[in-house]
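Students often ask why we bother encoding 3D structure as a string. The short answer is that it lets us treat folding as translation between two languages. Here is a chain of 453 residues written in the first language.
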Amino acid sequence: MSKPLIAIVGRPNVGKSHLFNRLARQRIALVEDFEGTTRDRLYQSIEIWGRECLLIDTGGFDSMDKEGYTPAILGSTQLAIDEADLIVFMVDGRDEPTTLDYEIADVLRKTRKPVILAANKIDTLKMKPANHYALRMGTPLPLSAATGFGVAELTENIEELLPPKDKEEEEDGERIRLAIVGRPNVGKSQLTNTLLGFDRSIVSPVPGTTRDAVDTPLDWNGAPLLLIDTAGMRRRSRVKRDETSVEYHMVLRSLRAIDRAHVVVLLLDAGGVTDQDTKIAGYALEAGKPLIIGVNKWDLIEPEGANPEKRTSAQKDYEANLNNYFAFVSYAPVHFLSGEKGWGVQEMIADALNIAPNGMLRITTGQLNDIIRRSIAEHPIPSVKGRPVKFRYATQFAVNPPKIAVFLNQPELLHFSYVRRIENVIRAKFPFRGVPLKIEVRKSNPRDDKDDK
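And here it is in the second language, the structure alphabet:
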């Protein structure tokens, strides 16, 4: 089920990021400390009264240049409006509306999407907000993102205005949803056209020429697929040619596609890796989606006909370099291909079909504890300053993505490298290829500790 997208928009310094952090605290994502996974966070999965949503903060892309910053802010706001299901328009409740507030309100009035006007920095009921009725956006909701006053009422209003749960995925039947994501001009549309056998997307060497795409059903060697093509970014007439707008649109489109996908294909340019690439991989990790990394345009580096079953020296060197950027998704298989010429595509899609069900694998508690105990017997958990760390038991408590709880007497003493070792042992025994495996270390029952004395 696709999560509704809630966008927080407004001029700088009205508290958008404060509200973002306040709402995001309802659900804290567990993210490994690698570059590209949490840096420049502009989104978060949250729960609004039991409904999972995706929260977007436009504040991170606000340009604070002394000259010409208004068009950049309005550009980011327009992109958020285009993608959002619901919009929270934040203003400073203590001050009268500014020119920029009026300009953003003019943009919001032209959309048919629900908008909540939130007057921030109103700490108590005794404080009276300024006159924001002049914005003609309805009754302003007083709140304080810093203290939490009025935030509960805001979430109630959001819950009432969320779109009904769609039946889109149910209508897709048994089709495996495959999202092709990546920064602009890495060849997503060319790959999509190769898969479909006809030019469905406009292909150009100029980034930003791809038009908005729609999902496309496809039967691949008898397997029913649904291609979710993010199309990079919109045609240039709809997107300003500044880097912040381009990246912002990439973020929104990628999040949407990853959220709905069963398997994510992150397409890279053989010319090199950028921060945008690692950010998208971080989105897939946090969403818990199976991931494949496809290195496109490899025909520009090596001639056609490279054997996909055997790595060349150039491919080995490139893959070793990828490990420096994508260590946090080391489980993702890497494929070298040419979307234009078609080679390597067959093998990559077949691999995507193979790893799609891996996220639903469930290990019995007996099997799980057996392999972990064997591993600990071979390589005991190191003690810390004479304090032993003892393994009690482990159990899998979730699938898609698979999550495993490991119970110890002193979990705070377990080094992260040993957690990684446990993950590697489990991956070596069970088919979790291409799937993020989340290990949670927890405190065991104190009664178990007494039994050791």
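Translate back mentally: The two ends are 50 Å apart (CA to CA). Keep this in mind for the problem set.
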